[in-house]
Amino acid sequence: MKRLLYPVLLGLGLAACGQAPSETQVADAAESPQVATQASPATSSAAAIPSAALADNPGSVVALPTPELARNIVYRGQMSLMVDDFDQTTQRVTELIRRHRAVLGTAHESRANGQHQQEMTIKVPPANYLAFLAELSQFGQVETKDVASADVTADMLNAAVIIDVKQQAVARNQQELTHAKNAAKTQRLQTQNQQLNGEIAAVRARLKELGEESAWASLTLRYHQVLPAPSPTRDVAPEFTAAFQQGWSVLLRLALVLAYGWPLVLLAPVVFWWRRRWQLRNAHV
After folding, report:
1. CA–CA distance from 98 to each of 90, 120, 128 (Å)?
2. What sequence ranges are listed for the domain DUF4349 (predicted)?
3. 145, containing H or E segment
4. What is the phi-psi region of residue 209: left when phi exceeds 0, alpha when psi lies from -120 to 50, beta otherwise?
5. Is 269's pLDDT higher than 60?
6. 133 contacts: CB under 8 Å, gap ≥ 6
7. How many angstroms separate the Cα of 271 from the Cα of each of 159, 260, 278, 280?
């Protein structure tokens, strides 16, 4: 009977030892709260938002916050002003350009149709564009004002992706060229690389253009002052022309009269001779 009990007791003892936790497991379990408490503040703060949202609505799906992408906005505008003092407005515009760190592109000044006019193209930092327009509107009476904006962020990202993809294609072709032994294949790969490099240059030029347009907001500014009307002066030219024509008409009429009276001109010497002779005859008597 004793021989049967020893194996049973030995089996129970081994089973109890297998279920008892080891010292290493107990130590790891004791250190685990410390590891949890040493988590970074950023991780805990980031996890706090979804936890709070899930606590309010357990069945909802919470989207983690993502960093905002810098936008590339292209601003274009036109403004026309009527001012009272042209020179003073020019000085104020120059000072406004300096204060807002803008750049004067072109300027054209003219006097025509009774107006003193100025046309400028100005490039303004996008952050100062709206403030620049607001101050500029106070320099005179606004006749026209048009402002437009376009978000080119997607276009620029798309251009960057296209450049990267085409550059990878060029690199693959270049690797194949190093192992190519067929002249036809070599020619084909070289032609593809030339085409890809041309497309990359075109996309880079477009990307540069978009970057320059989004770096500065453009404005076409026109302002004018109505000049005072000149004092009226007497124009003698029409009178002189009329007098000349009238005098010429009188001369022509005199010539016409002489043309009608030419027989009298011929008879005048005969009448003078006859009268002279009659006087002499009376004198002898």
Report:
1. 13, 15, 12
2. 71-273
3. strand 141-151
4. alpha
5. yes
6. 77, 79, 145, 147, 219
7. 115, 19, 11, 14
- Two structure tokens written together for 159: 């251009």
**Among candidate residues 165, 241, 248, 245, the one with its CA nearest the CA of residue 203:** 165
Closest CA to 177 of 159, 189, 169, 164: 189
Q: Which residue has the tokens 């010429």?
A: 248
| pLDDT class of 235 with cuts at 50, 70, 90 | low
* Assigned token pair, 59: 């069945």
What predicted TM-score, i.e. pTM, was given to this entire model? 0.52
Domains for the chain: give ranges and CATH numbers: 73-151 (3.30.70.260)
Residues ≥6 apart with Cβ < 8 Å to 207: 156, 159, 160, 163
CA distance 162 to 155: 10
